[in-house]
Design a protein that fits this description.
There is one protein chain. This protein is mostly helical and 424 residues long. 41% of the residues lie in helices and 4% in strands. The strands form three sheets. A three-stranded antiparallel sheet has the order 1-2-3, with no helix packed on it. Strands 4-5 form a two-stranded antiparallel ribbon. Strand 1 and strand 2 form a beta hairpin.
Length: 424
């Protein structure tokens, strides 16, 4: 066989192999898809269906991503930071040209269940269809009915700014073939109806794993590990584990206190801030008691991770702690007390605070640098908060004062380095 003939046959074989691989990827991305009628008639929604959709949109915090700051509700435009670039949420209002005005219920169901747009494009999982795939067709139709009832807003969708090759449909198709399979919520007969409702909300519309789950290098959530905590994609906030008492687990709490935290954002022992404050403000405070109790029941029943064995006391840099003590006395003791005792109903204690002792100090750094407030809710309409100190304290100062707090009043957190304090 001549070298030329061998080269031609090799190229042909590679072409066939690539075609087979491309076909396999296409088939993997089509699994679980129902036929879509592009010419279905108008969607006739009932008032009850629209009201249910409004409630479900709150449960899913849809406006949180699909409303830009200062923009029209659900008209899109908010940028979602990821390690691969910025994805801009789409316009969900019923505008024909720029929104979902030409969509029908089948198109919307396919987007929620299969992660595919009306025109067939694969959607990026920043739109968490990896969780939404669990919701029922009935709830999908109700959401569609609600969105169709909104005033149409003519606002063109912004192009994503992703790096190559993440900006290609081919790369997204491979990602989906590896990490996504359409699913459905399956009630567990051994569990109560309340537990099953909570599992449906937490795992589906609530998409809690999007923040409280771990991700691999390509951004896929590890559903097998569950709500084990993780860094928020593209942000320097850590969503603590919901299955661990030493992080954010609530298994040992009274159920009513879990409900109160979800409804108001604050209890005697804890308060939410940062991204979770947005969730309570825009979503969970609006849910009814039955759904909040269902979520609490499910979260309290999560199998608990084993607490880490007590470590040997870390070595302390006395000069660093002395510097931190001086900063604390000047800037922090006014609210949090000389002994980190806090002020009930206003400022949380720092002594024995599990948020202070987290292995990952990202949230502490963000709170000191940016400040933070619990959400304004009906049960906590004028929340106390913490002002930002990023304009007063430099990176070394932040590292020092947080190292002092984590080493004082019985706290056992490791020292924070200036490099860790640099995170913006």
């Amino acid at each position: 066989m001549t070298g030329r003939r061998f080269l031609v046959r090799t190229l042909l074989a590679l072409s066939v192999l690539l075609a087979l691989l491309a076909g396999a990827v296409v088939m993997l991305n089509l699994r679980g898809e129902d036929p879509v009628d592009d010419h279905a008639g108008p969607f006739a929604a009932t008032p009850g269906q629209i009201e249910r959709g409004r409630y479900l949109a709150l449960a899913g915090n849809c406006a949180g991503c699909h409303t830009a700051r200062g923009g029209a509700a659900y008209a899109g435009g908010r940028g979602i930071q990821t390690p691969f670039g910025t994805i801009f949420a789409g316009n969900l209002t019923p505008d024909d040209a720029t929104g979902i005005g030409r969509w029908n219920a089948d198109h919307f169901w396919r987007a929620m269940h299969n992660g595919r747009s009306r025109d067939g494009r694969l959607l990026y999982p920043a739109f968490p269809y990896t969780s939404f795939t669990q919701i029922s067709r009935e709830d999908s139709d109700a959401l569609f009915a609600w969105l169709r009832s909104l005033p149409p807003v003519a606002q063109a969708n912004r192009a994503h700014t992703l790096r190559f090759p993440y900006d290609t449909q081919a790369a997204l198709a491979v990602w989906r073939a590896l990490f996504f399979r359409p699913g459905a919520f399956t009630p567990q007969p051994a569990q109560s109806a309340e537990w099953n409702r909570g599992a449906y909300l937490v795992g589906g519309l609530g998409h809690c794993i999007a923040c409280h789950g771990s991700r691999n290098a390509l951004g896929a959530t590890d559903t097998a590990r569950g709500l084990v905590g993780g860094m928020l994609p593209g942000e320097n906030w850590y969503a603590p584990a919901l299955d661990a008492a030493h992080e954010a687990g609530v298994a040992g709490w009274p159920a009513e206190e879990v409900v109160t935290l979800l409804r108001t954002g604050a209890t005697a022992r804890a308060a939410v801030s940062g991204p979770m404050a947005e969730v309570v403000y825009a979503s969970t405070q609006h849910l009814n008691d039955a759904d909040l109790r269902a979520m609490a029941t499910y979260l309290q029943a999560l199998p608990q991770a084993t607490a880490p064995a007590p470590a040997a006391p870390p070595r302390r840099n006395e000069a660093l702690l002395l510097r931190g003590e001086r900063i604390y006395a000047q800037q922090c003791a006014w609210c949090h007390g000389d002994q980190g005792e806090g002020e009930p109903g206003a400022f949380p204690p720092l002594a024995g605070n599990r948020a202070v002792n987290l292995d990952n100090p990202a949230n502490l750094v963000q709170m000191v640098r940016r400040g933070g407030y619990a959400p304004a809710t009906e049960g906590n309409p004028r929340p106390y908060g913490m002002p930002p100190f990023g304009h007063v304290l430099n990176d070394d100062d932040i590292a020092a004062v947080l190292s002092y707090v984590r080493a004082s009043w019985g706290n056992t957190g490791a020292e924070i380095t200036p490099r860790q304090a640099m995170q913006r």
